[in-house]
Hints:
By secondary structure, the chain is an alpha/beta fold. The chain has helices spanning 87-96, 108-115, 166-179, 212-215, 227-240, 283-297, 389-406, 425-439, 469-476, 504-510, 569-580, 582-585, 597-603, 614-624; strands at 48-50, 53-55, 61-62, 65-68, 101-107, 128-130, 135-136, 142-143, 149-151, 183-190, 247-251, 302-305, 311-312, 335-336, 361-363, 413-414, 443-446, 488-489, 501-502, 533-535, 540-542, 546-547, 567-568. Helix content is 23%, strand content 12%. α2 (108-115) packs across α5, α5 (227-240) runs parallel beside α6 (283-297) and α11 (569-580) runs antiparallel to α14. The chain is globular and about 90 Å long.
Amino acid sequence: MKKIFKATAGVALAAVMTVSASASFVPAEVTTNHAAASSDDSSDDWLHAVGSRLYDKDGNEVWLTGANWFGFNCTENLAHGLYAADVDNFLSSVADHGINIIRMPISTELLLSWMNGKPLEVSSVNAGYSPPTDVVGEDGSVTKAGTYVNINKDFVLEDGETVKNSMEIFDVIMQKMKDYGLKVMIDVHSPASHNSGHNYNLWYYDPDAEDADNMAVGHFSDEQITWDNWKDSITWLAEKYSSDDTIIGYDLKNEPHGKRGYSGTTCPDTIAKWDGSTDLNNWAYSATECANSVLAVNPNALIFIEGVEQYPKTEKGYTYDTADIWDAPADISPWYGAWWGGNLRGVRNYPVVPDSGTSQIVYSPHDYGPSVYPQAWFYLTDDSKTFTEQTLLDDYWYDTWAYINAEEIAPLLIGEWGGYMDGAENQKWMELLRDYMINHHISHTFWCLNPNSGDTGGLLGYDFTTWDNDKYSLMEKSLWQTLDSGKYIGLDHQTALGSNGLSLSDFYANYAASEGSNLDGGTKTDGKVTSTTTTLKTTTTATTTTTTIKPTDSGIIYGDANCNEILEVADSVLILQSIANPDKYGLGGSDSNSLTEKGYQNSDCNLSRDGVTSMDALYVQQRLLNLITLPVD
């Protein structure tokens, strides 16, 4: 729901030039790159879900706390700001400020150009290296390479001035993310490379859709974006990066939306819905199919699933196909409304369950305050003068998305939140959501680093170097950090996050038990999986985290992977660890906590009896939540 403004030389910046792949360069101010630490190439940073929490390969809990950096989704085919800032300076500053993951919007059109071997060119980039090599003068004096121009030098070829294509530059940026201990989640923001492409309802191009003429891919290429194009291009990128854990997951589509009724919509196929059908515009179905495709080439990737905009009041008999409410007036209220991408009510009845289970699924709503749009839940009908955390939970948050976390269904990551610092209601809303996420281990990516977002602004100024200290101070409290020393905690096991950060291994080895972190409002842990508490709308109840089960006549205790005769969350984690890292945690693995022969027998607990799979971990989780009875329990 952002008005994205094009970043060009029209922005009032000194010493900025915009270039294409064939442009020539003139001398610019020399930029000194920050030296990056050696990067971690061991590909051991993949994550998985158990209940409402995310864990690393060792069963240690992690918290994704980051920000958005858009541009690869726009006409420039490049993350914005690189006309002003050197990428090393930019990324080192982001890491130094404690952001451990960047959500990076991209377009399907751009992905297709890469997949088809015809990468689109970039624009609005300042890149050059002059002279490209040391030059020895007639008098023997040496002019060092990069003396006259030295900015984004890795974006140009050996001649120091020919700009690489969009895919090559993307790959360079991903390597640099790794160098600074940053992780990335890819956000498929729109079908077309279009600065307003997010306004389009669906994840594929439907020529009958509302605003199709304005959003058509044909404005920028000869190809339309089909449903298969969308799925196949994400899968292609996931396979390309399947052995590189810099990109830890994929947000399959930004803000699926569309309203039935009220807005002159004439065709139900042009809006994003969430139901049990196999219609292509059913986001639950499409997301499941795309997740299957991605996980087939990279079973370790996280899959981030956003919501839709409208969900019918099914308890009153309404569905997306109820004909007599097609043009229903608003006062009939056949729908539950939400922000674009924010409505996850459908997860209760139609969860996204890939063939491999739900260990990689993270639901990702977007949420904004009253300055973006004056939604009904900000304006109370009783005698209260203003909204509170409790009224937001009662009137919107809980039934729309918070229940997924509170009831241990899956983890949440708020993919977009933010806004202007107005010193009033919008700022109050940001603080309430921030504190709720801190206190309930909800991951998040702030919108946004970019200053050129029309209805929210950003964390950075138009030089993409200067930070808005007031806005950053508000958001910074929700970054994962140690309690006493305030060190930022990264998601890479080896590479520390920026100059004041820790690697994940360093945190759990030296800080987690003694100092702890701000996760869950302040937690110390020895790194082992612990019990959880579920907060409901108005009451707090303990979730069942252990249960005693009886062995079968053959002595098998189904689900008891660690063989302590108690079914617990740790059993689910061990099953997932044995799949993700069999040499260490599988049958006969090197770790002392690896599966034993009996543990392996116990772990094969779902009805299919097809060996130990992620479905067995899911069965354990569901049993602990009393959603099922184990087949032989």
